[in-house]
DNA sequence: TTTTTGTGATAGTATTACTATTGTGTGAGA
DNA sequence: TCTCACACAATAGTAATACTATCACAAAAA
């Protein structure tokens, strides 16, 4: 049996749906590779076109500009991750176990998903770590947000916040803790590789240490026997 | 008595020291204003030159490119913040109180420091929130790190990590918790204003809520009466 | 069959990110 | 007092970037 996983994306993210054509899929797969190699700043549609063997104008038929393409890729990642969270927490009753699984999904290295042939998920994961926040760190955030371009991120955040509330219905900051876990799952890995003195993970470069840190952080917040501070 | 606060910056950050001339100070103050207004992506040396009333080439004599200028500004901010942390935690014995003060310094709105006439600290604070991480989220991080361009950030992180260890000498992740607090002090404020559903701070837009969240986060991690998780 | 659609090919423009050169006024040192 | 760096202004120029527009062709849909 051959399975295919296709994620429905917000239509405002693109001019022409890249999932619907060979060129479109090439744009996605090659842009992921190219952004990973050169970094988002040096990435241009011209280089991408040369890489694919098409023309600049060809890319512009799919995406307004490179920032929109980044948002598309990032949104795809969050949607895919939410799907994985759903699968991996399904049929688990203990919310703490759920949360631990989620943290591992966020911070640990990814294996390639064979059902999405044109996306290399492990490279994608590295892109999100290094470039992901650039999707929303712009003057256009609010406008883009009104177009629901960040819905997949917000959905994932809400989903994890629900698990957090299952762990402790009285916890006051489920969504902030959720976004903290998500962001730190990426930032701590980035720091570990590039600015290690901002972390306690030493030269081992092991994502499991980040997982441990985040589990400790989350569980300390949610399983408090101590009295409320004041 | 007139006080002046001058922060000694790493010489690799600039080609000519901007603190040493009127034009240099104008470059700093106007770039802060301009980046705040237009965002770092739209910010160019040409616009800056027009704003100041000099020429592009004039700016290039001080800074190699706009990314270096951003790193300079960000580094200045971290140095200034470390100085403030030192002042505000001086002569306080209780480490928990120290940590709370630090969190407030990080997340709360800033008042203008009259001793640095050419820097508007409140606007600077907003820039760091929105653009700060772009200083290191590049392909050149490791190279820039070798030039010690991020030393002020790492120093601040280490300083807060020390306070964390004072609170609980057995805590395993002082530096990661430190960088988490620093990053989240900014990101949660950014989210509160621009992507509020990633937070629990509602429409109030009050930095004090972020402070409360971070205090809760940190103190839960450091004052554990519960058993170690497994 | 006609029409639409996706693509390739080419051209062109405004802006960006620089580099290089030249001249002028100012201030420090001889 | 001379002069000699110097910081700066002014101008010019280049390669790359970020687009937009037009036309032609082939395949697929109507």
UniProtKB/TrEMBL annotation, chains A, B:
Domain HTH tetR-type as annotated: residue spans: 21-81
Entry annotated with the keyword Transcription regulation: no
Keyword entries, A-Z: DNA-binding
Domain of life: Bacteria
Pfam family, one: TetR_N
DNA-binding region residue numbers: 44-63
An example molecular function term from Gene Ontology annotations: DNA binding
Transmembrane regions: none
Annotated protein name in UniProt: TetR/AcrR family transcriptional regulator
């Amino acid at each position: 049996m051959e399975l295919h996983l296709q994620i429905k994306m917000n239509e405002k993210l693109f001019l022409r749906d890249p999932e619907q054509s060979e060129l479109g899929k090439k744009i996605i797969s090659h842009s992921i590779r190219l952004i990973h190699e050169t970094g988002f700043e040096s990435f241009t549609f011209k280089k991408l076109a040369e890489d694919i063997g098409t023309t600049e104008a060809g890319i512009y038929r799919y995406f307004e500009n490179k920032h929109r393409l980044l948002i598309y890729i990032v949104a795809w990642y969050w949607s895919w991750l939410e799907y994985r969270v759903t699968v991996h927490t399904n049929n688990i009753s203990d919310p703490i176990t759920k949360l631990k699984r989620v943290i591992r999904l966020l911070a640990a290295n990814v294996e390639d998903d064979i059902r999405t042939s044109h996306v290399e998920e492990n490279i994608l994961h590295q892109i999100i770590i290094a470039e992901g926040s650039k999707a929303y760190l712009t003057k256009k955030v609010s406008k883009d947000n009104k177009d629901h371009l960040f819905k997949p991120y917000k959905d994932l955040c809400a989903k994890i916040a629900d698990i957090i509330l299952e762990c402790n219905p009285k916890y006051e900051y489920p969504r902030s803790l959720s976004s903290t876990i998500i962001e730190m799952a990426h930032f701590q890995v980035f720091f570990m590789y590039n600015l290690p003195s901002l972390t306690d993970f030493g030269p081992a470069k092991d994502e499991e240490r980040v997982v441990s840190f985040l589990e400790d952080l989350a569980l300390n917040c949610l399983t408090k026997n101590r009295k409320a501070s004041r």
